[in-house]
Amino acid sequence: MSTTVGFVSLGCAKNRVDCEMMMSKVRDGGFRLIEDAAMSDIAIINTCGFIESAKQESINEILELSKLKEEGKIKKIVVTGCLAQRYAEEIRELIPEVDVVLGLGANGDICSALEKAMEDEIVESFPKKELMPLDGKRVQSTLQHYAYLRVADGCDNCCTYCAIPLIRGSFRSRKIENILEEAKTLVQNGVKELNVIAQDTTRYGEDIYSKLMLPELLKELCKIEGLEWVRILYCYPDRITDELIDTIKTEDKIVKYIDLPLQHCNGEVLKRMNRKGDKETLTALINKIRAEIPDITLRTTLIAGFPGETQEQFTELSQFVKDMKFERLGCFAYSQEEDTKAGDYDDQLDEDVKAKRAQIINEQQAIIMQNNCEKYIGKTLDVLVDGFDRYAECYFGRSVLDAPEVDPCVFFTINEDKPKQGDIVKVKINDYLDCDLVGEMEV
Q1: Is the whole model's pTM more than 0.90, yes or no?
Q2: How confident is the model over 239-250, as a mean pLDDT?
Q3: Is 9 helix (H, G, I), strand (E, B) or coil?
Q4: What confidence tens digit (pLDDT) does each residue in 22-74 have?
Q5: Under CATH, what is the fold of the domain 146-373?
Q6: CATH code for 4-131?
């Protein structure tokens, strides 16, 4: 009976891709993958170390599995991912139940690490993070009809609040032919929607082709037979070029959706974040995108309570949100991170102030999104079916307005034909609940 291995992947979609590549290596290495890490011989936690709440979630997961190990239900615990990379020395010191700690550069060596662990060897390996493989086979862990397509990793933007360059290293693009080969394989395996990701997706190709190559890559992806939707996430506002806007506008398979994390709108706050722009330039960019692509869905993320943010600067951000009426938005309270420039600023705000400001923005946005739902009542949308909700007793899926895992859903009833997971069906919208649209499938 082969040794069973279960994965727990935390954090962002980029981390999920890392996990899927390790899953493939583990499976091909003779281990048996099972879905529930708590029932496995070896539990692998692919951690997130981006902000404090994510770190705490990772630590809590490790501690839960440590209890199961003490009870004899699992044999070995392996910690990989960003938390392992960032806190290489501390993890085993604080949680001695952990058997293996691997930095990102050791992801390709996962099988040899597991073999050593099964021989009761303690493994700690932290080669250069740039050795982390970006190309290779994957075991898809999302629903079969959508997947994430990572085009680059690492980041050189060096925003003062962010530890990503420290954790994941410099920006590295993949070769276009490798990306296309992977995309074709995913589509052959049933994927209808590809979500294009990187730490800074809009910078794709600049490091290896000496120019921004995202538009060219997108056009090539759109040629893949069987692929229905291409969605672009993590776009840096400074690199939204006319060529990219035109590509999104003219390519039918590219859903009219841009994830554009702005973080703030006040020029002084953005400068202290080591980001460019101000309210005027960002407003002009948004207006330009909407003028060129009238049916665009814009998603953004914002940080409230950045060090030194005055009440006036927060009020400007709040008004910006009201004025721009983003279709999708998430606001987070600033998280003070060690080894970041902003973490050392001496004008940190109280936790209560940060939390309250984030709450205000999110409550404003909820009203905007509910008002936005009104305009879809009576309209028919294409919906990619994700499944059946047995509690609500109806099907659910996503329209082009909604990215997986972060955006609302469309709930719908049926008349006769039962749709299958991964089908794209027509749904007439007749209501909404919170920010989710509700409708009925058209025959």
Answers
A1: yes
A2: 96
A3: strand
A4: 999 999 999 999 988 888 999 999 988 777 777 888 888 888 888 888 888 89
A5: pyruvate-formate lyase- activating enzyme (3.80.30)
A6: 3.40.50.12160
